Amino acid sequence: MRDLDREETYLVDRTGLALELRDLVGTGPVPGEAYPGPHAALGYGEGQFAALLSGLPDWGEEGTLFLLEGGYDLGEAAGMALLAETGRARVVRVGFRPGVEVHIPPSPLAPYRYLRFLLLATGREEVLRSVDEALLEERRRLGPEVPVEENPAKFLAYTLLERLPLFYSPLFRPLEGAVQTLFARVAKSLSLTPPPSALEFFLVGLEARHEQGDPLAAVLLGPGEEAALAKEILESRVDALAEVPATGANRLAQVMALWYRMAWTAYYLALLYGVDPGDHGLLERLREVT
Amino acid sequence: MRDLDREETYLVDRTGLALELRDLVGTGPVPGEAYPGPHAALGYGEGQFAALLSGLPDWGEEGTLFLLEGGYDLGEAAGMALLAETGRARVVRVGFRPGVEVHIPPSPLAPYRYLRFLLLATGREEVLRSVDEALLEERRRLGPEVPVEENPAKFLAYTLLERLPLFYSPLFRPLEGAVQTLFARVAKSLSLTPPPSALEFFLVGLEARHEQGDPLAAVLLGPGEEAALAKEILESRVDALAEVPATGANRLAQVMALWYRMAWTAYYLALLYGVDPGDHGLLERLREVT
Predict the structure, then answer these.
(1) Is A197–B46 a contact, with Cβ atoms under 8 angstroms apart?
(2) Which of B177, B205, B269 sits opposite A188 (nearest CB)?
(3) CA of A282, closest CA in chain B: separation in Å?
(4) Is A48 inside a domain boundary?
(5) One domain, residues A149 and A269
(6) A66 lies in which domain range?
(7) Which domain CATH number covers B232?
(8) Residue A209 is nearest to which of B71, B190, B206, comparing CB atoms?
(9) Predicted confidence (pLDDT) at residue A212 exceeds the cutoff of 90
(10) Fewest 10 Å CB contacts: which of A86, A158, B167, B245?
(11) Is there a cis peptide before residue A147, judged by omega within 30 degrees of 0?
């Protein structure tokens, strides 16, 4: 097994994703002006999670609509821009499509940058500060220089190795898909997310195939009564169970701290599998055709 | 391997789910009165999918709010009812909680009944007719009496046996979770759904573990440009790929026809695994505590 505390393990990281992860806080574009309210945000691809997490409505008849064009929209974002521009709302296109007003290049870590821009553009600097504090707090324990005994992301990566992760976050359910995306894109790995009725799924969905298939590793992201119930149900049904506590002054900071922890975990899992955690060349082509 | 064209295979169906499946169309409560508009619907548990599919807003300040109490809400539905009752909207509680105005007992097939009630209560009889027509059309080919060569649900169940299904429906993404729930509850089986950026997930998420784990079977539900792209990407990455065409006069009918086809498929998969497709006793306890 590869050793996350040895330098040669990091040679597969050819694009230097570790540096981007370490220096993430404070990166990304800042608004150059004040945008009239009320604000709305509609997100696609890499911008979708930030739009949901911002809590802004996804459409507005007036004020400013932030259109987060993070790819994979098959022309829908452009259509929505046209539609919005016929109304009284100002449309601010953010992302990596041609002609955007605010540019955010493709990256598995772009969700942080979309969220940061949205918080600044809507005058929520306080909330951004709490997010950044939570991420900086996490960062101290998660980097390559912190040995596995003191590094929860390294530790979790070892737990997930050779297992099929199952993510559950009653705190903010869309986090599950965001983490599934991180694991696909960074660790090149398959993972599972439950349907809306998650507890029912845990209770009855693991019978027929469980014994023959991949060993499952449940990852409970954040607190909640549902997480406690899920733990009770899953303990006897999965091969391993990990609870990831949420740190942060508010829900938004907690969710982003969990997301950041899982980004590091996906990074370490890539190293353990011996695959480059950086972006796959195929993704560029997919972004072009969609 | 068990044979779906032999009677003894059906002995594990102790609760007679085949009859409930066959006779589903036209079952469930009908509204006893006219409900003032505008209408809104907020759904939990078994009612969640119908609320989304109805296209109704999930909250309204006036008119009628249909609160679909299909379980697993941990008191949230009751809280929402109290909140709504302080406003000008009338609240109609539907489901299986104590004191509901319209009763729909727990069943894996309840989503149809919640949807049917909503369509009738909001004056959309025409749409319901198109849904029912699509389901009746499906039913002719899906029952136990139709042999496997002419029965697409039986055929698909054989394809999914001993594989890990991966559901994708660009037509209506919440269908994926609804089908994942059917497979858990009826077939007692694990299945996968992709995150919002599904094509990216298909392209890069199947590398690290794919060769060692369960063989994957992708199931593309319904039409669309994304479904065609997904097929192209997945063909070389999964063990089996099935395309399920959508029949029906409109999107709602198409989605429900796909859901019904997958309910039959989950039923047959349970029989192939030799498990009772009926409800697990544990679920009743879970509904009580949540």
Answers:
(1) yes
(2) B205
(3) 8
(4) yes
(5) yes
(6) 39-128+280-289
(7) 3.40.50.10490
(8) B190
(9) no
(10) A86
(11) no
